[in-house]
């Protein structure tokens, strides 16, 4: 928060105290003003970090949905107010102790175990809105207003993907502002995120729409690997293999390498076959192709989605307007690579037939697999369920010769993933990874990875 914003915050406090002298204790207000003034002085000495990740609360403030230092309170399911505080960019400043808490921490501080902080933290302005309602307001406004400008090749968007409009955010970093649009698909990018210094002349194709051999844009007749989804010019394949027969076999169920074929067949063999972990626990890999699966698998996938919704607020992508978790679990396809979730599998850990822990995984190739979503029912937590699910997943990935597993960790869960052997990626490694692979990641998360040591059988 800048010095000017802190001074305006202090003014808001003074006005509020003048209008409602009984609502705020003067002694604590003085302490709060001193605390803000002290931080304001520090702002002149130490500039804000422009790379600091945006928090859920700062998003609401930046979107003008709530004001800095807006009053809130945590209520239980009976509607009783447990704790009061004020919204800041970094957290909720509690009235009783003047400590700043994240949403989940403020819920714990209030003595609640609902595990849905945004739904039970209410604005104390008479509107009856929760923070969850405020986030829905932000999501709704993003679909009604064009927030970014785009640099369009040759002055217009000339895509072969039908009526789909260009994306509103960069497929690499997730931010908006000025974007360059791919000629072949709806994907958009910042110039710097794809290694460009200026807008290229003529046609430009994003990395996903370029040939895996020559690196040029792919249009018309091409082959696409069923596992890694990379595209190849037919002429490049003919020249590389010195065979026209090879191209004839590239039309259906084609794989660009033996590694991709082995991974695909290995995952298909695993899918739907439970692996016993203990007497009461079983581990199962499930897949839904664009919503198409048999009745039993669909029931388990629906149960997995229920676990996700129990643990996380529903997140809708503003390009599709759909629930991200649901689209991932049911393998929803799209011509926009960023929200194309084909190839995703859902891993479930069941205890006596009940789904306890779930995770989503996508194996891109022999080098990278991603684990963007993982959740455990509240009734099964603190029993090592997530560790057992991940351990078995890593075992199966090693057998498929996959080199590393990556995931986006929320800051509060970073320590947990570190205990499971994951480490924070460097900015250079992260940029290289996101340029070469389209991963599902979220703003404010920390990209982590774990190298999987494979045991090669002797020749």
From TrEMBL:
Listed GO biological process terms: regulation of transcription by RNA polymerase II
GO molecular function, one term: zinc ion binding
Gene3D superfamilies referenced in this protein's UniProt entry, alphabetically: 3.40.630.30, Zinc/RING finger domain, C3HC4 (zinc finger)
Cellular component terms (Gene Ontology): nucleus
Keywords linked to the UniProt accession: Metal-binding, Nucleus, Zinc, Zinc-finger
Main location: nucleus
PHD-type domain boundaries: 167-212
Domain N-acetyltransferase as annotated: residue spans: 307-452
Pfam family, one: IDM1_C
Subcellular localization(s) per the UniProt record: Nucleus
UniProt-listed PANTHER family: GB|AAC80581.1, PHD FINGER PROTEIN 12
Protein name as annotated: N-acetyltransferase domain-containing protein
